[in-house]
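Researcher: Before we compare anything, I want clean individual predictions. No alignment, no superposition, just each chain on its own. First chain goes here; please echo the sequence and then give the structure tokens.
Model: Echoing the first chain and its structure:
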Amino acid sequence: MSVTSIVLVHAHALFREGLRHHLSAQPEFRIVGEASNGQQAIQIVGSTDPDLVLMEVDLPGVNGLEVSHVIKRTHPHIGILLFSSAMDGQQVVKAIRAGVAAYLPRNIEWSNLLTVLNDVRKGDYPINDLVLSLPDVASQVLAAFRQMVIDEDIQSIFSPLSLRELDVLELVAAGQTNKEIALSLDISNQTVKNHISSILRKLAVNDRTQAVVYAMRRGWIKVVLPGD
């Protein structure tokens, strides 16, 4: 796998220095920018187009969730990892809606963070595992997505997605990772990533889960949500 470029975003220089120290020892990662607030983060991501963004939720000014929304609208391929002091269900729901790939405690151990980084750089969404591991969070997420479906206006049954993109989206809805989708469809992992970026762009949504809900609402794919 090629070198993964990273932007670090945290209000405290010492926290960024700690991350930089650990990441610089890993040849597969390269830090291409740093920011101390949300506005700086948006500008630096726009100029560097990194593969990953490691960011604190509680940023001064524009917070990490708002920054995530902006980044995913303009750069849907970027994997975002958020650090938070509280694993609150509502915050996790907001993070999923923003397209965040991983939602992590601030005091996460380096070995665990490294595992998550490698998962996200492969196109996986560890935030989904977090939802499944916390029942309260899972119930809030499911309720939020059901409401998203209810709130959607009924639109044309016509799908702007290609048949291959619909195939990919159905496998996303089934919970498959990018690697599993690539094996299922006999295509490369990069091709899967390209299809997902195209799906997000065409549907004007922030993340894979929103794309699934959008397509389900319009009858383009058929998936049964957990608990139904």
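Researcher: Okay. Second chain, same rules.
Model: Second chain and its structure:
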Amino acid sequence: MEKQVGIVIPAYEPDDRFLALLRDLDAAGIGPIYVVDDGSGPAYKALFDAAAPLVERSGGALLHHEVNRGKGRALKTAFQYCLEHNADLTAVVTADSDGQHTVECIKRVIEAARQNPGALILGVRKFDTEEVPWKSRYGNRLTEKVFAYISGVHVSDTQTGLRGIQRDYMAQLLELKGERFEFEMRMLLDAADRCPIVEVPIRTVYDSRENHQTHFNPLKDSIRIYRIIGARFFRYLFSSLSSCVLDLLLFSIFCAVFKPVLPLLYAAAATVLARLLSASYNYLINYKLVFHSKEKIGTSALRYVLLASIQMLCSAALVTVLVLLLPVPETLVKALVDTVLFFVSYQIQQRMVFRKRQ
């Protein structure tokens, strides 16, 4: 028996393109369709009244929010309804109401969802064509690069609303934070740690480069999205800085303790013991709070020690070479080298030391 895949469409103040999409889905026999009116208000009642028969004929449902609660909450409302009212549904495909997603593209994502039951499916657009608004083109490129660095996973279209989501993952997404556009970014970050991400090429559809209409607020929603993306890196930054402070504090304490009994070796003993404790602290913070790793502690600890050793040797070698080659103060050279290694170390820890999944 073919796996049943539903269509979820969050809609806030939609226009005739919304009805055109529903008619195309109806003509293609695609459904069930679950529409969420996200508080569009009385002015849009006639539009949703016209949509109701199409939604009902598909076997789906038309859901309502009394006030606008955001795209993330609209998606969760639909997910909750699907889980409670349709036990035969194995996955859903989310689509936007503004005409960007054609029936053919939706079909591709449906098929990919059926063929990849453990994956999050993304319908990805090309952003190098002339019809793409410059804001979308450059915004996506920047977000693509930042997301790849922070998550360790490359996604070519981080802003796509056309996604295939498995039933089990729908249930998990109900617990994910985010009520508005930032919810979709949280979903990507969560999926990057949890399951494979499969990309399906789709058409790039915009009204025009200059006049494309969207409810996405470039300032407010971008701040929300980048705050989410950067949260993990700032935890990593806090972990590193607090480890440094702890190392210096412990060094001072151990110097005071060991100096009377080890007058010749107290500094070396204090250095080694302080570094062992601060490194252990840094490892545990990164394991639990930064990367939320599911790797075995013994395995990740061994990799962490190996990375720290290699990083120390690289720092020593690079500082030595650069000091000999450049007329720059040694302290400045070391600061620059260790800053570069700091960013490189984040990637290595994420991809190799504290991996969450294969």
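Researcher: What stands out in the second chain?
Model: The two ends are 31 Å apart (CA to CA). Additionally, The chain has eleven helices and seven strands.
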